[in-house]
Write the structure tokens for this entry.
Amino acid sequence: MDTDNQVQITTKSLKRHHSDNKSSPTFPKQHCSSARKPTISLQSIIHLPETEVWSLTKRDLRSYFIALQEYSRSSQQAVDPISLPSPPSQNESVKEIAPVLRLPLEIREQIYKYLIYPPASQPILGPHPRQLQNSIRLSQPVPANVLRLNRQIHNEALPLFYGSPEQVVSIKIDFNVWEHKTYRSDLVLSPTLTSCIKHVDLSIHLGSEKRNNKPLGPEAYARFMEVKKGVKKTGKWLAGADIRTLQIGWQEPPQTYTWDQKRDILDGLKTLRAVKVWAGEINWGLEWNRGKRYKFEVDYLKELERGWQDNSKDIT
């Protein structure tokens, strides 16, 4: 009797359990899935290749984002810490200094001088300072590979390159106002650099037309004023420089500018106070035999020299 009752109870419980399964389907519990979630390493997230990022599922992206967010909010960096480089100690920072920079400045300057190239057969195109109308040219190329080593070497070596005894800086002053305004440079050479220049080859251009096409009236006057302004800018740019030699070239259309006008332009070069001044290439006016109205007076260049100016001051 007891056995029959036990069988009936078991049968009823099984039926009840079967009906419950049909009415309410079972779902995996949330805590079980979270227990199987793998631990995310911040290092693996940070160093994840870009190609693999695009293949991640939305669920993985969300997990990675939460891990990074928790790390950023954690003050104690409880998640995998990202190894950041510690600041170098005093001994380590000394080791990183280049050996040449540990030498005294006097020795470094001697090394820089040995790196200067010999003079080229033709002047090399140099930078275009904003203070001047045109690009300058250099008789000795500047070793750019040395200047690119670091800022300290650049600042120490560049003045020596410009102030080399054989370095001649060629400057051209011409009348082309439109070209000056169109190609104006943004480069500013510091007075520390320009004060090292010792040798200058200055070329003044007022035109190259033939006599029949020479400028007249307002056109000739505009050229004259533009060149005069260029000479003034050059004097300001070289202010403070100890100019040892100054060579002056002159080009103009025949019978265009009188000697008084030429002298008015050249007077602006007295501010350079060069030790030695001589004539370079003069295209016209040296052998003008019809009076002195248009002749280029080479002897006047002596008045631009420093010694002549000092003697004239003593006399007065």
In short: The two ends are 152 Å apart (CA to CA).
